[in-house]
User: What shape does this take?
Amino acid sequence: MPDTKFIRIVGALLVVGLVAARAEAALVTTPLIEGDFIWEPGDDFDHEACTIFVDGASFSARVAIDSVDDSMQEVALSFETQQPTNITRGTDKLAVRQGQWVSMGVQIGGADILVQVPIEKCSLSASFGLSKSRGVTSLSCKGDDLSQLLSPTNIASVTSAMATRKHVKFKVDSARKKWSLSTACAGVFTP
Amino acid sequence: MRSGFATAISTCCAVALFAARAASAQSSLLEGDFALTGVDLNIGCEVDANGGTFNASGYVGGVGTAGELIALMYDSPQPTAVSRGSDKITVKQSHFAEFSVAFQNQGDLPLTVLGSCSVSGSVSLSKGTGGVTFSCGGDDIFQLLDTDHIASLQTAFVGRKGLKFKVNAQRKWSLSIACGGVLQ
Assistant: This one.
C-alpha cells in the first residue's frame, strides 16, 4: 500500500518541477523543423494555396482553393487536417497526413456555407523540405450524398467554380449525390 | 412582402437543416488524454492526442539520500513521429526529448534537453492498455549533476523496477524508464 504522504509530496514536487521545466523550455532550441510554410502552384497562384504548420507538438496541413462561379460569385473551398493520423518530422523534412475525416469548409459570396465539417472519405497529405524550400500536397475526397452538405444552388455554384481550376477535379453525379474532389499542389515556399 | 418572408424562412430553414446535418458528421479518430497507471503508483505516464497536438510524457517519484524526495519528469515537446487511428495512438520523439529532475531539499534543476533523449508512447483503446518508454544518456554526468545529486538519484532509483540508472567510472551515464499499465 503506497504511503499517501509520500505520493502527496512527490506530487507537489512534480508540480514545482514541471512549472520550472515549462519556464525553461521556452529558452531551449533544437534543430527540429518548426514553422508555418505556404506554397502555391506556379501556374495557378492566387487560386490555390497549400500550408503545412508545426509549432512544438502541434501539427496541421491545409489546402485553400479560390474561384468564381458562373455569376461571378466568389467560391472558396478549404480543407484542413484537424486530426492528423500520421506525422514525421526531422531537422529538414516535415510530413503531415490525415487518412480520413479531413474537414471541409465552403464559402460562397463571402457567406459560410460549411464550416470545417469532417468528411469521412477525405484524405490530405502534405510534405515540406526546408533545404529545397519545396512542398507537395495531395487531397482526395469523396462522398455518397453531397445534397446532405450543400443545397442544389450551392452545388451548381461549386461545380461551375471548380471547372475553371486547372489542378482541381470536382465531379458530382446528375442526382447531385455522389461526388469527388481531388487536387495536387506543388510549389516553392513563399515567406 | 409575403414572398420575402417566405424566402427568409426558407433560407433560415435551409441553413438550420444543413447545419444540423453537418453537425451529425463525427470523426471516429481517437481523441483525448490517456493516463496510464501500473502497480507502482509513483510511476505514471500519459499519451495525449488533442486535435493536431500530441504528447507522450511521464514521471517517476523516489526517495533519495536521507529521505529526500526526488521526481524525474520527461515529455515530447517536439514529436518526430505520430500515428493515430480510431483505436490506437503512438507518439514518439526520437531525439531532443525533455527531461528534468526536481529534488526536495536542493531545489529544482534546470530543464535538460539532450540530443540523445527519446520518448515513445502508445495506447490501445480496445485493449485498455498502453505504455511510455524513455531513454537518455550522455558522456559526462557531472555536466548535469553534482556528487550529492548523483548519490541521491542512485539511492532513489537503482534497482527500482521499470527504471535503470547507471553511471560508470568514466562518468558515462544512462537512464531508462518504462511505464506501462491500464488506462485510467
